[in-house]
Design a protein that fits this description.
By secondary structure, the protein is an alpha+beta fold. It has 9 helices and 7 strands, in the order βααββααβαββαβααα. The strands form 2 sheets. The chain has a 4-stranded antiparallel beta sheet with strand order 5-6-1-7, sandwiched between helices. Strands 3-2-4 form a 3-stranded mixed beta sheet. Strand 2 and strand 3 form a beta hairpin. The longest helix has 14 residues. The protein starts with 18 loop residues before the first strand and ends in a 6-residue tail after the last helix.
Length: about 210
């Protein structure tokens, strides 16, 4: 996302471990488009993955076009269709998505020997001691995301001193900051991983950023 990339990463080398987090916000849709072009061609216009939640069909992963129209994850399919009749929908396939993410994980082994799954749509790369082989952290991150893009995968990324910080920065991009610590402080409170009522209490108390 560029937030942490703006930091002077060269000054951080040798101070500890470094992590590159990758997040695929449209992983189910990208996987379907790449692996099943026949099914993908059946839709036109805005698209979304849908899932049954307590007996009702809801949007699980709207694409960028659907989001731009005001549709959102968790929205009832009936409401989404009323707002956008041309919405093309596909049922979620968590097992296929998991297999796809594991394949992406294996592919990232070319950049570092330490790669792990990070949630249902993310990867965590421990790039400690690897960045110099690619000319630095930014060139390494660019090499990873460029290769993914060439294969049709949209990804957001972040670099940080801890896996937790990289995870949060990839999913909740903060405003541009001069360094990593400042970027983390500008994150919303959601990345803290608190219970929903605790997060709401913090926001009601006026504590909106880490």
């Amino acid at each position: 996302n560029g937030t942490v990339d703006r930091a002077d990463s060269s000054s951080m080398e040798g101070t500890g471990r470094r992590y590159l987090a990758l997040w695929f916000p449209f992983l189910p849709l990208d996987r379907l488009r790449i692996a099943r072009p026949d099914r993908w061609a059946q839709g036109d216009g805005p698209r979304a993955m849908v899932d049954s939640v307590r007996g009702a069909m809801r949007l699980a992963c709207p694409d960028e076009d659907a989001l731009s129209l005001g549709l959102s994850a968790g929205m009832a399919l009936a409401d989404a269709r009323a707002q956008e009749p041309g919405l093309a929908v596909f049922e979620v396939d968590p097992h296929a998505d998991q297999d796809w993410l594991e394949r992406l994980c294996d592919g990232c082994g070319r950049y570092t020997p330490v790669v792990a799954l990070d949630g249902p749509a993310g990867l965590m790369l421990d790039i400690s001691g690897c960045a110099h082989l690619w000319g630095g952290e930014a060139p390494l991150a660019n090499a990873v995301t460029d290769r993914l893009a060439r294969h049709g995968m949209r990804a957001r990324h972040a670099l940080a001193n801890t896996a937790e910080a990289a995870h949060a920065l990839a999913r909740y991009p903060a405003a541009p900051a001069p360094d990593e610590d400042a970027a983390i402080r500008r994150l919303p409170v959601e990345p803290l991983g608190l219970e929903a009522d605790s997060t709401l209490a913090l926001r009601r108390a006026g504590l909106r950023h880490i």
